[in-house]
Amino acid sequence: MTFYNYIFFFFLLLFSSIGMQAQSASELEARLKKASSSTERMQLKYELAGVYMNSDLQKAAMHIQDAQDIARQKKDRSMAAKIIFRDAEIHIKRRDRDRAEARFKGALSAAKDSRNDEIALKSLDQLARIAYEDRNYRGAYNYSKEAVAYLKKNRAASTSSSSSSSSSGSVTRLTNDNVKLKNENRQLEKEIMRVKEELAGMKGEKFDASAAKKELDAQKRKLERERASIEEELKQREAEIANISEEKEKAEERTQRYISRYKKLSEDEKEQAYELELKEKELLQAQLATQEQEQYTKLAAIGAGVLGLLILFFITMLISNRRSKKALENKNKEIDEERKRSDELLLNILPEPIAYELKENGKAKAQKYDSVSVLFTDFKNFSGISEKLQPEQLVSELDHCFKAFDYIISQYKGIEKIKTIGDAYMCASGLTDRKKLPTDLVKAAMEMQEFLKDYKQDRSRQGLPFFEARIGIHTGPVVAGVVGFNKFAYDIWGDTVNIAARMESNSDVGRVNISESTYNQVKYKFQCQYRGKIAAKNKGMIDMYYVLN
After folding, report:
1. Structural domain boundaries enclosing 411
2. Which of 269, 359, 400, 421 has its CA 20 to 30 A from that of 307?
3. Same domain, yes or no, for 389 and 288?
4. Is pTM, for the whole model, over 0.70?
5. What residues are paired with 374 via a beta bridge?
6. Is there a contact between 438 and 409 (Cβ–Cβ < 8 Å)?
């Protein structure tokens, strides 16, 4: 049994007795409608999320998000730890391992703050599992080691508390407990040494990102070649079908000639027979009967041969048509699948209306929108951090953060990612004909800062450099369109973009700074702090606000 399996088995025994009586979703929904306090609603939504986890992940995510909002308002860190842990389990069900890992880390932090030992140990167990499955054996070892240290620390604390209130007769029991703990400690040290040996043999395993990219490029080129081959084969099939049609027409002409020839031959013979019958009826009657019989036999044989050839020809043509039709259907299916993949790639680059217009017309017209909210993020001291990391490590950390940002904005309909510029991230909402408030964009900005807070705690615990970001938002008119020919890109322009960049540069690390135009549209949804008029580069004095919660 490996060390990781030992730890997992230990946690399974530890928490096997912890649970709640399962209730049906309908009963919980009915209780939720009658709930009068926010605490009761929070608990019921937490339980509903657990019930829906195995049947409806969308409902589970909705209830757990509502429960998390209530926990934040009440500042209940212990309940927040349980809610964040369940949110992470939902992401595991969705197979979103990166988001699940970030949420487990958030649950661990909240559990430690609120001294919720159960959630802390569960979070460490799940983090160790994820690291092990990702072949990050060093990380799995560190999480497992931290869990053992945490458990030993809690046992030592509970033992000390009980000894201060016990009588002198409990000394013997405490001594026995200490002996058991020492035995467990020695067993754990043996397992730790075995994991170290396994790690020493696995140091050579690395993920080669450049090799993966080359492999993807090779697969893409292969698909292009296959597509060209399919199109060429379709042309050949069309030519074959045309040839078959011509052969069919020729065969029908031959058949008509055979039939007409047959009819003509029959009439001639009848005339000859009639003339012979008149001239030499008595003398040649027997001979004529014999000749007629032989002629009819020959004609029957010829007719049967022609009919057989026609049947064989039509059967061959039918089989060939069926095969050609089947092959054509398969090729059309493959072409449709390739077209769907191309459409998906296009939708990853462009908003859906722009992508549709580009496919239909071959170009997309620039459009003006009167109220668009633009968000900028930028990492603090990026140059200094980049000097401490290898290029591969730097790109990996940027990719980790930007993937989290992509996931966050994907949860809100109407937010479009515009682009990344170095360590800057840009997105916007309101790029539709329907007016949209910047409420979702502000929520997404707050979630980005929450993610970076969890990320900072994790990196700090490992003694590694981390990113901290400034975020700024401004609302106003923009012009949007597609530029370029080969490597085209969707972008937005206007003074609104420049002011949003000034909001970001005048923000503090870990804060969300918004302009007055954005504040006027979200002030009834969020608690904000007025900062006063602040000088912005090339823009003069601008009213700015910090979003608090």
Report:
1. 367-547
2. 269
3. no
4. no
5. 428, 474
6. no
